[in-house]
């Protein structure tokens, strides 16, 4: 009887700890993109590994950052996936903490461009993409971003609106080609404004470009590499340009919420996401281009993603501070010179 009582007391003393371990919950805030694949390749395997519960919140960047701000005093999100620029905005607002990269076993495997994208220690890149020009090689030759505005080509060009993700990066590279690469992007916007009546469209969604190119209404358009797969299925020849000024693009990063009570678990999840195995599986599914330099891809996957050390080194990304400090000005100049 005495032994049974002791055993009972021992079990009751241990049960809160066991329950606590079983009930560990990590809340993450991510883009709504490809969530079925993320569940299968990232979320479920991590839950099985950590013995914890993963709560996933999705939405656009504005909504998700607003929620982090509203809950600043008592955070409900532990880790978030956001753009480079949004990470800097969150850092400026005091919403995120430094990332203890010593606790990330996969940190050293990242391409240099992804290790500290904003040079403040507050984020780690998990995927990036190139932005260049998809074009008809049978109709034109692209050596420079400025070739888009040549008289013989401009009437067959679609250009991204400044309000899209691809707009500012494409303007950034056009400005470099024109020798007008100031942060306000005034030079390239004015150059587009002068040709606005000749350009086929200032597109809002890259999905509309595939049909326009198939119908031969356009010969060229700046796009993100994540949109490339659709062009490879066309019945007309399409090439990916490597202009002499280089390629631009974007990067998504992982950040830790300031004041989170689950930062150690969040770091474990971050490390899992950055692992060679996870990044390979996501890349082969064409979900994300890998930031882990150990990832080896099939030819089919590599051809549809931003892949490889040479590509990573070639990307000229808009510095986040430039993007944050000039967004309003870009839109104002665009509306004045190009219009809605």
UniProtKB/TrEMBL annotation:
GO CC, one annotated term: outer membrane-bounded periplasmic space
Matching InterPro entries: SBP
Domain of life: Bacteria
CDD domains named among the record's database cross-references: PBP2_polyamine_RpCGA009 (cd13589)
Listed GO MF terms: thiamine binding; thiamine pyrophosphate binding
Signal peptide range: 1-21
GO biological process, one term: thiamine transport
Keywords: Periplasm, Signal
Protein name as it appears in the record: ABC transporter substrate-binding protein
Organism from which the protein derives: Rhizobium hidalgonense
